[in-house]
Specification:
Strand content of chain A: under 5%
CATH topology of the largest domain in chain A: MetI-like fold
Structural class of chain B: mainly alpha
Mean pLDDT of chain A: 84
Number of strands of chain A: 0
Strand content of chain B: under 5%
Radius of gyration of chain B: 24 Å
Shape of chain B: globular
Order of helices and strands of chain A: HHHHHHHHHHHHHH
Distance between the termini of chain A: 11 Å
Largest sheet of chain A: none
Mean pLDDT of chain B: 83
Number of helices of chain A: 14
Helix content of chain A: over 70%
Low-confidence stretches of chain B: none
Structural class of chain A: mainly alpha
Number of domains of chain A: 2
Order of helices and strands of chain B: HHHHHHHHHH
Shape of chain A: globular
Largest sheet of chain B: none
Oligomer: heterodimer
Largest interface: A-B, 48 and 43 residues
CATH superfamily of the largest domain in chain A: MetI-like
Distance between the termini of chain B: 34 Å
CATH class of the largest domain in chain A: Mainly Alpha
Low-confidence stretches of chain A: none
Number of strands of chain B: 0
């Protein structure tokens, strides 16, 4: 319990820090933020400037601006876009499901490939099979997701016409069509994850295989499959769980580029459009959402690690 | 049983094994050669007898790779700019961003991490929290945000990626120096009254360098990937300056007609990343004693 309390405290500190940095982002704008924002609306007169200053609360002391901003966020209010006059939370919520689906599909696919492969090669350490898999993961780690996305589009969409190059079909309209429409981006962002997960699980599985209880299991005549999946997998999982949590960050970054390449209207595309239209408040809102999502994913991974690994609890 | 005297044969075996361990594996040698080649052509680019990377050459009748001609050995892109020249010019950007950002991240990260790890206590707590807060922003998101607010440029890429990578170096440096802070020779130096900063500089730093450097080499590859992503999104170096990422973006519209425009920079980039990863792998096996056991 004490461990969980400590992690919650840590979570609170990090979330506070993240919110302060995101809040201060607008201040990175050279000069007067109101002037920069007014410039994007096309009318730079004193009246507009004052209105923007007032609406952003720029005439208040900094800490009070932050307080107002954060209170608004807890009410789901991230402000209103100056470009589209649409509430920022609405824009984010409309684009959210696609990105969530992409991230979930990528994690599921990566684990579905990496776990069996790692369990397959771990008992055959240093065999030719192990070496081939090691070679493949080494190469996969060197191919950036956007390069892979382009090649997949080139092969499966342009060349073979098997998959759509761009566009997204909603999950509620057509489940299979929806999965198909996200297949290229999913494969593109999963390659790196598959490589990393396979490597991590393989090496912790090799450690587990040297444990006494595995030998006992073998002596008791358990089949190889039961030994690996039944006894060996669970104690090997904690390091994988941590890496899965950390890779949410990689995945979030990857979705931005891959969504743009594949013409999918998710949060990544929204961020890209926001920058190109200088929609600063939308950029700020999205950065906050991405960072908070990443922090929470890591927090959950930490807690799961704590639950499934009695060794961490015993060590404290 | 008397003490065993090693026979000459086993000494020879030992010597041979040591020589084997010291020899550069061929794939690593090739990787170093590739990186050296990139560095040389990138530096010499402006004086090499190749067309200007940013000038369109419609006259030569040269258009779209893989149309190969004497004037354009790898063909040209969609607006008739020489692809070889642009690849070389882009290599300069990749290397500058990779090395520049990792240099910044290295200095800042080692300073923060080693201080936190060695001194411990409240200083460690505060610095670690700061590191964790910065690490909460996924790299590409942080870069996109920085670029959105201060504008795209080579400087933004180098400094931005430096800031984004610094906390990662800090974390590695902290863990490494924490391990050394407890060791006997550090305790002895302390007992003899050596000042903390001196111990940090003379005793901790040299010992954590192998670990930090082998991590930093991987970071170069990560920075080059990030630079490519930013340039692909049009948030990297402003046009017409070539970058492997922007070249892929330029060619993406012509993917059906001339896939080579995209494939060339993509292949060059992947080869470079493989080379860096081979070097990183070798560095960590060779110099970082902790990772050589596995």
């Amino acid at each position: 319990m004490k461990d969980i309390a400590l992690r919650v405290l840590h979570l609170a500190v990090v979330l506070f820090g993240v919110s302060v940095i995101t809040f201060l982002l607008i201040r990175l704008l050279p000069g007067d933020p109101a002037l920069s924002i007014a410039a994007t609306t096309g009318s730079v007169d004193q009246g507009t400037l004052d209105a923007i200053r007032h609406r952003l609360g720029l005439d208040l002391p900094l800490w009070q601006q932050y307080a107002n901003w954060i209170v608004g966020i807890f009410h789901g209010d991230l402000g209103v876009s100056y470009r589209t006059s649409q509430p920022i939370s609405t824009a984010i919520l409309t684009n959210l499901p696609v990105t969530v689906q992409l991230v979930v599909m990528a994690q599921v696919l990566s684990l579905a490939v990496a776990i069996p492969v790692a369990l397959w090669v771990a008992p055959r350490r240093d065999s030719w099979l192990d070496r081939i898999i090691a070679g493949i993961t080494f190469v996969l780690q060197a191919v950036p997701n956007y390069v892979l996305a382009i090649f997949l589009v080139l092969i499966f969409a342009v060349g073979l016409h098997w998959l759509p190059a761009i566009g997204y079909v909603s999950l509620t309209d057509d489940v299979w069509g929806s999965i198909r429409s996200l297949l290229i981006p999913t494969l593109a962002v999963s390659a790196l994850l598959i490589a990393m997960y396979t490597r991590v699980l393989r090496s912790s599985m090799i450690e587990t295989l040297q444990m006494d209880f595995m030998l006992v299991g073998k002596a008791m005549g358990f089949s190889r499959g039961r030994l690996l999946w039944g006894a060996g997998l669970k104690p090997s999982l904690p390091s994988l769980v941590t890496v899965v949590g950390l890779n949410f960050g990689v995945l979030i970054g990857a979705t931005v580029v891959v969504e743009v390449i594949c013409g999918i209207r998710g949060l990544g595309t929204l961020l890209w459009n926001a920058i190109n239209t200088r929609d600063y408040l939308l950029v700020q809102g999205l950065v906050l959402v991405f960072a908070v999502a990443y922090v929470l994913a890591n927090f959950v991974a930490d807690i799961i690690h704590l639950i499934i690994d009695p060794r961490v609890r015993a060590a404290k | 049983m008397s003490a065993r005297v090693p026979s000459t044969a086993s000494i020879a075996t030992f010597e041979r094994r040591r020589a084997h361990a010291n020899r550069l594996p061929p794939v690593v040698a090739v990787s170093f050669a590739w990186m050296a080649l990139l560095a040389v052509v990138a530096v010499l680019g402006p004086v090499l007898p190749i067309p200007d990377p940013n000038t369109s050459d419609y006259d030569a009748g040269a258009r779209l790779a893989p149309f190969v001609s004497l004037a354009h050995p790898l063909g040209t892109d969609g607006v008739a700019r020489d692809l070889l020249s642009r690849l070389i010019s882009g290599a300069g950007v990749s290397l500058a961003v990779g090395l520049g950002s990792v240099a910044i991240a290295g200095v800042a990260g080692i300073a923060i991490g080693a201080t936190a790890g060695y001194f411990g206590g409240i200083l460690d707590r505060v610095l670690s929290w700061l590191t964790d807060i910065l690490l909460a922003f996924p790299a590409i998101i942080a870069m996109v945000a920085i670029t959105a607010f201060i504008g795209p440029s080579l400087g933004t890429l180098i400094v931005g990626l430096g800031i984004v990578s610094a906390p990662q170096v800090a974390r590695v440096a902290r863990t490494a120096s924490k391990g050394y802070a407890q060791r006997d020779f550090i305790q002895a130096a302390k007992a003899m009254g050596a000042p903390g900063l001196r111990i940090l500089w003379r005793d901790i730093l040299p010992n954590i360098m192998p670990t930090v450097i082998s991590f930093a080499v991987t970071l170069i590859a990560i920075a080059i990937v990030a630079e490519g992503a930013m340039s692909f999104l049009g948030l990297g170096v402003p046009p017409p300056q070539a970058s492997w990422g922007s070249m892929m973006n330029d060619g993406y519209g012509d993917l059906k007609k001339a896939p080579f425009i995209v494939v060339l920079p993509a292949v060059v980039m992947v080869v470079t990343l493989l080379a860096i990863n081979f070097i990183a792998d070798w560095v960590s096996r060779r110099f970082d004693s902790r990772s050589s056991q596995v």
